[in-house]
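User: Could you write out the 3D structure of this protein bound to zinc ion? I've included everything you need below.
Assistant: Certainly. Input first, then the structure.
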Amino acid sequence: PTTEPGSALQALAERIRGVFGFDRLRPLQGEAMAAVLEGRDALVVLPTGGGKSLCYQAPALVKEGFTLVVSPLIALMADQLHSLEGHGVDAGVLNSVQTPEERALTWAKLHSGQLDILFCAPERLAVGDFFGGLVEAGLSAIAVDEAHCISHWGHDFRPDYRALGTLRKRAPGVPILALTATASPRVQDDICEQLQLRDPARLVGNFDRPNLTYRIVPRENLVSQALNVIQRHAGQAGIVYVMRRKDAEQVAGDLAAKGVRVEPYHAGMTPQKRKQAQDAFLSERIDVIVATVAFGMGIDRSDVRFVIHAALPKGVEQYSQETGRAGRDGLPAECVLFYSGADFHGQRSLMERSAAEADEAGVTTARVELEGNLERLGHMWGFAAGAFCRHRFLVEYFGGRFEVLPDGCGACDVCLGELPAEDDAQVIAQKILSCVVHCRQGYGAGHVTNVLRGAKLKKIEQLGHDQFTTFGLLADKSQAEVRSYIDQLIAQEYLRVSPGKYPVIGMTRSGLAVMKGEEQATLFKPPAPKKKSAARS
Ligand code: ADP
Ligand code: ZN
């Protein structure tokens, strides 16, 4: 503890070389370790595979006492423990599946100073004076892995993690290192607040994947659209993500009928069948796997050249994780998302319904979780239906900075100029926004659409909405077109939807700015009339 951080870091570099065999640190690993050695709190946000574990494992070797690592899954802890033991590191675990003898042995080692690292599940720390015992045994640092689990704004909220909020008070002098691979700035703030971090070093890595080209396309006919992408990559590996098990079966069947070497993969299959599909994919006997989101944990093919999403994912976190499976060899790969407004509206009512059920069943966190779920879905929708550079959006979503080149990123549909822009965007937007104001922000998208199209409906007459100056202003557009414009305006936060049984459309501050001509709205041309799509059958 008397050595300076600088020289401590140098000593550490040698230990890292000796123990782990790494000659060089990855980006931000050094900064994270320096924070731990200085006794400063830190939040580390690095992509999966970025090397988060080393940030706490290495300092634990040179620090006095031991480092507590909080991790959500027993299986993850076991993996890390084995790998550390393989490197000759003194590490242990305390969990609920151990025998009393095993636990007693670990405690004894801990008290006699034989362990550098101790793994533990969050719920243990809430039990009696378990944590007090750790402090007595020489706890000198705390690492919270998968730290986004503490935030209901995150995509994997775990009520157990909330217990970690008391650690700071119970061990005020012990530095806390929080680590995660997926945290928007809001989730990052929440992590810092919940864990009561003091002036933490915020170390956010680079999440950009420059070798991936992103495209987001309205869904018309999923199978023929997907086939198009697959044919661009004939004989190469790809993953198609679908929402439901039966979609996986059906889409795989449809693609197979077109000659694609493909298998479905989902949780409803027997373990044996799943393994067969997985083996076929890994051994290159098939090229394409059509999977529900559950897929992917154990599958590690680095030459995946394309990832297709058949429908809107629930959040940017999932999207980024799933597209992240493309091009892991660093070579170019393509990510195409096919979506429709119905995905968004359908997901939203599904979330609201299941929250209401959970609420009734007495799940106390159902409401806050719904809030987080809806927010993430809204961001995903904004990403899909909006028209910002996709690389820039993704990097900024996770709190990074992205330099926009004059010619764009060169690797997304927006920058490549593939989205047909609507020339009259501003005028169309103003008509729609005025109509929402006329409707006194009390009606849904369907009604607003009908008024704008001048529909001769009894309800409209009874309400007197056919007297509005905005009545029939978009009579030359189809219903689907007007709906698409409205969805795009919602996505860009010029309009907002208040949740509820009958979602109502309202104005936002930037919507008002567009009405006044202070801000310029952009819209792209809505897709051609929709045919029946396999993703929703
Ligand atoms: P994360 O937890 O961020 O997903 P890991 O900690 O599991 O990532 O590390 C991913 C892989 O990178 C591991 O195999 C690890 O051994 C390796 N690794 C970590 N740091 C370095 C480094 N500085 N040099 C080389 N390999 C590293
Ligand atoms: Zn771009």
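Residues 22, 24-26, 29, 46, 48-54 surround adenosine-5'-diphosphate (ligand 1) (CB under 6 Å).
User: Perfect, thank you.
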